[in-house]
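From the pipeline queue, job 12 of 40. The input is one protein chain; the requested action is below.

Action: predict structure.
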Amino acid sequence: MSKNYIEIKNARIHNLRNVNVSIPKNKLTVITGVSGSGKSSLAFDTLYEEGKRRYLMFSGTQFMVDSVPSFDSIIGLSPTVAVEQRIIRQANPRSTVGTRVKISALLAALLASQGQRDPAYDDGIPLDISMFQKNSPRGMCVKCMGNGTVFTAVEEEIFTDYTVSLQDLFGGEQSLYKHLLRKFQYLTGITPQQCLNELTPEQLDCFKYGDSEFEGLLPWLTDKFRWSQGKHNWVSRLTCVRQMPCPKCGGTGLGLQASHTTFGGKNIAQLEDMYLRELLDFFREQGDARNPLVKEIITKLSCMVDVGLHHLSLSRPVPSLSGGEIQRLFLAGYLIAEMDSMIFVFDEPTIGLHEIEKENLIRIIRRLVDTGNTVVAVEHDENFMREADYIIDMGPEAGTRGGIKIYEGGFADFLRCAESKTAPYLAQKDLLCGIKKDNMQNDAFGSNTAGRPLLPVKMLTLSGVRLHNLRNVTVQLPLGVMVGVCGVSGSGKSSLISDTLVPKLKELLKAKCVTGDGEEDEKVVVDAVLTGTEHLRHCYVIDQRPIGRSRTSCPATYTGIFDRVRVMFADTPQARALGYTPGLFSVNSEGGCPRCKGDGVLHYHVGFGNFVDVTCEDCGGSGYIPEAMEITLEGRNIREILEMSVEEAADFFDGKDKMICNMLHVLKRVGMGYIRLGQATPTISGGESQRIKLAKELSKGKNAKGSLYILDEPTTGLSFYDNERLLKLLNELVDCGNSIIVTEHDPYILSNCDYLVEMGPGGGCEGGCVIASGTPAQLKSNPDSMIGRYLYN
């Protein structure tokens, strides 16, 4: 091969089986294949990691540790950058879209130099950039410390009955509260047994608000509630203490100078709360394009709008973004930087985008290529693959049955690749749509061919929704079928389903509405009306939130498989003879290596903000003590079991444990056969997390007729082949008398839905309306629909 290619020889990390590929430079290359076939292992764990390692080694900022090479050679590498779906979300809630792309700093500079100050708040001190940054001591609100919110104890909800005694105010005795009452008794002589109405007005005020000696119940509750966040005690469960907008700054987190200095009639908080498209139009109209600050702001905003982030605001917290939005945020940063001679590696950049938006994204990525960069994307989207210069197909299946290069070359020849599991779906578009069952025969939705039995259509009706950009929306969602909710980014899909329907279902169904991760839903119930819940027996909300956050959590622990596995190990003759318990086979219990705490690696800080993981010498990377590793189950120790893929484990446990076999079978059916039982959950993407949650619920047995499943883009990360398997499973659920509501962009999946609700017409302030609803056939013929022309027959 010439110097115009990146040549990888004998890549063998994870399931890759000595893969040789040549990736053309300054071109767009797509790596595709079934889920778990080795795409990410090739793109990220081989190409990206080695490119990053060489650059950091050359710059002298990387501490190197000898390791077994996962390839023979890679020739033609240049500095490499990448963004994965499974990127660990930033924990800092103060990190926003504006701070990430540095536009907030530009706005601060603009207002500091050219802002109009309110004379009433002009203290004579010259304006400074730090005055407009709520993370700065000079710019933050002193009451909320820049957070924009404060915890407040609601007096009216605490003091509802003045005949109750002080000690029974919260329904019983709690140790923390008893300590406060003892102090109050010491200072005032009032006993905990006395009733509130026995106190004088002065004594009651002292008890509520405090004085110079006594803290006061309301300030005490607020303080204790703040420090109880994330803990499970009675204070953290109180509903009378709430997080509310700061009364001093109005929720902006900014000080007085920033709040009363404007540009074009808007202060910095108002500018940052505008949708990016609105903000771009604002500066094009209000700003002087000759001003270098305004010019730079317009340039950056244009890039962000171009990559499909027009529906976001600069104040949007980065941790709240989806994986696709994070990737496009980084992509905008790359475009702004105008780098060349780089290798960019993306992980399904089209995730979360409408078909119309994908066309623009492809043009943007082409700009990276045209400026002298190499782009490698792991992708399943058909149109993205058609636009690629080069295709690499991995397969033939997942896990140990994959890891082989099936094809590399142009797209036209790829369509004729007989060995590929992806090519047939591109060449014969009716394959995926061929499994569709037209369920809806009722004339209310049009005439479809016979499929499922004729039944009266029952409805969920959501009316009067006014949230974010939703404008008094009313929508009907038929039950007993699969409903798809679609629309461009920011059109109101999540506001309608995740932020309105789900909280209302939890409010009305209570314990019958469960989330996939068992966490409490913190979303506030909005002022909307939901009817039709009497038709539901259960509701399962299965989202893309992580299934675990600790380094030792994994699919086996989340699904409950590992509990059964540990019991099986403890029940072996060898373990029984030694008196071992199931706890010995958990790294979080007595079986964990004391040196690495069960991680299998030691984490060292090596300077320059870099960390390095070194395999723990005591346990050899297993995370277990030697006693646990010596016990085997049919020749496999506990670590070898955790290293198995779901496919391998299904064969190994066949006939040994009914619960384990059932769980593994369902995991395979939702397209997770490739994932390792012991894979750390922080490395699992949102789409994978959702499918694991779905499998966990489905494995509990045949659910009673009348259950509702709500899913958020369940096909994220799935190939056409895996989509077909998932669709068959979802159809089976509906055939059993259940209902499904799925938020989705994939036209194949939407074409297989029975009923569609399309939000739009645009994103942000241009959206918030139901622009079309009906069967896929009806949307195809509806001129108001934007997705209709992309649907398949």
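Job complete. The radius of gyration is 29 Å.
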